[in-house]
Amino acid sequence: MAANVAAIASAARAADLIVTPELSLTGYDVRDAVHDLAIAIEPGAAPPLQLEPLAGESTPEVIVGLVEAGGDGIPYNTAILLGGGRIRHFHRKIYPPTYGLFDEGRFFGRGQMLDTFELAGGWRAALLVCEDLWHPALTYLAAMSGADLLIVAAAAPGRGVVEGGPDGSAFASSLAWNELVSVTARTYGVYVALSNRVGSEDGVTFAGGSRIVGPDGAVLVSAADTGEHRLELVLEPAELARARQPYAHLRDDDPRFLARALGRLVAL
Amino acid sequence: MGVVHQALQDAHAYGVIVLEPHGPEGALFLRWCEKTRVEAAAAPGANGEGTDPGASAELVRAAGRIAAAGRGALVVHPVNRTALLLGDIPPEPLLPLGDVPASVIQTCTGGWSGSESVTSLANRAGGVEALDRALFRWLERREPFAVATSELAPEVACALRSRFQAGRFGRRRAGLVPKLGYRTVGHDLRI
């Protein structure tokens, strides 16, 4: 963990916000080591000693992933926002995948909240972890709560080789992720910043392909699927309005209708 | 190859010793090693010499292990996915082509290799492409067995299922296979 903290700290320069992938401090395939790796955090307070290099008063704000020791004794797959010497926000992964090659539900608890938070320049953001993005209810909630920026910290492995991509082949899972990110951005008229892991761990290759997508769904910057990259972009508030103007679905959406329908559905 | 690099790092090994280096899979893997700067060497005695092929294979395997231990290397077997699914399960710890179907090896190199039982089954199926199609439909797309193997003669389908079932125990203990597909031996295909 110390090496990862140092690497992130050395890369944190000349930006308002740095986003790193899911479980960037520990690696993804932690399994039952969760109990050894878990560290307790206190939102609003100074970070634990191990994370102090990332939370200086004058360093950029940074989002990192770690195993959180919940106060309830349950480990969580958590992404935290560090800035101004304290933990400004945290998000516990709500949907830890437990299917196919994924086994997270055996080791992690499930988050129960999705809050938005404010960034420099008045940006309102929401933070999701990997599989969370595949649940439309969460992106809907984030958008209805006023998020202009969805930040997704992911460790998505590559699965299913198909034709496509710049060198002739691509992971089918990467193509699906790319579509999902663009559709989400366009649907809600928000920027989506995806930071996805690269490299290998225990036979699994992580698909990389980090990207920032504009509120009209267009890919603004993207990384290759191999090798570490640093993507930089200045977000423009005016683009939010420009992307949303042709459409009225955000304006017309009625969460009360959804609340009533869900109330009937859940009551059943 | 990223997985191979990671495996070498995890094992504190300097490189790999490759069994069956002269087959299509072995040759392909050695080319990849050269391109990605992985130190690779053929297992000692892996030139097929010897009067008893069975004994020779075991001796080469043993020689490979001894050479690897002496040089701080990992022993690698370039078995393809088709052979792995149909019961050719080598005991080596790293199987870098274990998720690459034999038909893909054939497309890349003009040939593929497997045990006599597997190659015979492929011939009876009308070619390794037909065999891989059936395996893909059954295991990756999860079609019912009868539907997935509908292009095969019934006795060939029966033999395919029989060989797959016979490999159950070995697949649970198979070495590390870099994941490419949706159901990869050792990751999410443990049956």
Strand-pairing-aware structural class of chain A: alpha+beta
Percent of residues in helices of chain A comes to: 10-25%
Q: Report mean pLDDT of chain A, rounded to a whole number.
A: 93
**Termini separation of chain B:** 26 Å
What's the Cα radius of gyration of chain A? Answer: 18 Å
How would you name the CATH homologous superfamily of chain A? Carbon-nitrogen hydrolase
The coarse overall form of chain A would be globular
Q: Number of DSSP helices of chain B?
A: 10
- The portion of residues forming beta strands of chain A comes to 25-35%
Strand residue percentage of chain B: 5-15%
Order of helices and strands of chain B: HEHEHEHHHHHHH
Number of strands of chain A: 14
The residue fraction in helices of chain B comes out at: 40-55%
Sheet with the most strands: spatial strand order of chain A: 5-6-7-10-13-14
User: CATH topology of chain A, which one?
Assistant: Nitrilase/N-carbamoyl-D-aminoacid amidohydrolase
Give the uncertain stretches of chain B in residue-range form.
none
Computed CA radius of gyration of chain B, to the nearest angstrom: 17 Å
> How many β-strands of chain B, per DSSP?
3
Mean pLDDT of chain B: 89
The first-to-last residue Cα distance of chain A is 46 Å
Describe the structure.
The complex is a heterodimer of chains A (268) and B (191). By secondary structure, chain A is an alpha+beta fold. Chain A has one domain: Nitrilase/N-carbamoyl-D-aminoacid amidohydrolase, CATH 3.60.110.10. Chain A is 24% helix and 26% strand. Chain A has helices at 2-11, 34-37, 136-144, 172-188, 237-244, 249-252, 255-267, and strands at 17-19, 61-69, 75-83, 86-92, 116-118, 124-129, 149-154, 161-163, 169-171, 191-196, 198-201, 204-207, 211-213, 219-222. In chain A, the strands form 4 sheets. In chain A, strands 5-6-7-10-13-14 form a 6-stranded mixed β-sheet, covered by helices on one side. In chain A, strand 13 and strand 14 form a beta hairpin. The radius of gyration of chain A is 18 Å and the shape is globular. Chain B has 191 residues and is mostly helical. Helices cover 51% and strands 6% of the residues of chain B. Chain B has 10 helices and 3 strands; from the N terminus they run H-E-H-E-H-E-H-H-H-H-H-H-H. Chain B has helices at residues 2-10, 24-35, 53-71, 81-85, 102-109, 116-124, 128-140, 145-148, 154-166, 168-172, and strands spanning 15-18, 39-42, 73-76. A 3-stranded parallel β-sheet of chain B has the order 2-1-3, sandwiched between helices. Chain B is globular and about 50 Å long. Chain B starts with a helix and ends in a 19-residue tail after the last helix. Chains A and B meet through strand 11 of A and helix 1 of B.
